[in-house]
Amino acid sequence: MERLTGRSILVTGATGGLGAASVRALAAEGAHVGVADLGEAAVRALADEVGGTPLVLDVTSPEDVTRVVDAFARERTSIDVLVNFAGIVDPRRMDEIEPEAWSRVFDVNVRGTWLMCNASIPHMPRGGSIVNIGSRAGLVGGTTSGASYAASKAAVICFTKSLAKFAAPQGIRANVINPGCIETAMLDHFAPEVRASMPGQAALGRLGSPAEIADSVIFLATSASSFMTGAQLNVNGGSHM
Questions:
Q1: The one catalytic residue among 85, 102, 114, 149
Q2: What is the DSSP string of the chain?
Q3: Spatial distance between the Cα atoms of 78 and 229, rounded to a whole number of angstroms
Q4: Is 226 among the residues known to form the active site?
Q5: Which residues pair with 133 in a beta bridge?
Q6: What is the reported pTM?
Q7: Do 129 and 220 touch, CB atoms closer than 8 A?
């Protein structure tokens, strides 16, 4: 049974490893997906594949966000679900990264998420759902690398709690998924020894798959999670309990 038939879902960071898996899974459940990301060719290819709407978007630009969100809402009448995958990582240690690079991580991961939520909520009906993407790193901190990423994801986690309180009177839910180490190209940013240690961080002894994150996105997008807001789903194989 298609659980999202007739729903309009906007996904940022849609052509990345996690985003693309979720776009395909949401479309398979009957949703019409707004495929939003920076690269026009990849956006159009994925939108064509799933029968969605291609949306070329820079989440750090308030003008871009307003333009794209308003256009998608006009096309689809409303936005039932927003999924914020857009994010970047800088694997450098906190004493190596330049202030500008640190700010860039926060601009995409935190400011971009906030801008998308602010722009989308006026177009969401009661029963709407926002799914933000945190990280295990946002719960436990970075190790020898990725302090900026960990700090930004901690901010996303806390922002989602504030968002849930803000949106609840409008009947809109907001939750956050905290993935552990998932098999995507993002892991290639880390040093080989850090990358090699990642499967062993999980109690299950392996990396997660993008499909396992997509399953959590679908759960939070459907009425199966209708009494959940401000919650965290830790999908990390037991690397943080």
A1: 149
A2: --TTTT-EEEEESTTSHHHHHHHHHHHHTT-EEEEEES-HHHHHHHHHHHT-EEEE--TT-HHHHHHHHHHHHHHHSS--EEEE-------S-TTTS-HHHHHHHHIIIIIHHHHHHHHHGGGPPTT-EEEEE--THHHH--SSS-HHHHHHHHHHHHHHHHHHHHHGGGT-EEEEEEE-SBSSGGGGGS-HHHHHHTGGGSTTSS-B-HHHHHHHHHHHHSGGGTT--S-EEEESTTS--
A3: 20
A4: no
A5: 177
A6: 0.95
A7: yes
Confidence grade of residue 131 (pLDDT, cut at 50, 70, 90): very high
* pLDDT tens for each residue of 172-221: 999 999 998 888 777 776 768 777 878 878 889 898 899 999 999 999 99
Residues 151-178 have a mean pLDDT of 99
> Domains, the chain, ranges and CATH?
8-235 (3.40.50.720)
Q: Select from 194, 201, 197 the least CA-distant residue to 238.
A: 201
